[in-house]
Amino acid sequence: MLKASGVKVADEVKQIFNAMKVVKSDDDEKERIRIVVLHIDVEIKVEKIYRQKDLEDVEDVYKFVKNLMLADQCRYFLYDCHFETKEGIKKEELLLLSGLEKLLELGGCLAEALLFQQQYHSLFQSTQQTGDSK
User: Fold this and answer.
1) Where are the beta strands (DSSP E) in the chain?
2) What is the pTM of this model?
């Protein structure tokens, strides 16, 4: 379990992050993880996983993610974003999103969000430095 700034990251989160970051050519596209809902409850934990097959009928995945952000809950999202540039180039980016905009209006979990962002940065850097893709 990784730890920084007082927040632990569950091993499951690290494994999922690595699976999303490194896509293998023989992976089943329908089983590809596209969205992971995360929350902090002593440690950073996975709340729900959405795979490509779960989103086949979703017209706009980004709007779907935004609708998952509840005003009264502090949640974070790893989002495997697929998009096309103005030049017609298809791209994929792994994004970390939070529902902070809604929560800040209510005065909720700012310190928790900052700890999470620091921990996510540490996780990303440790996998970059070690080349850990398992």
Assistant:
1) 2-4, 7-9, 33-41, 43-51, 76-84, 90-98
2) 0.69
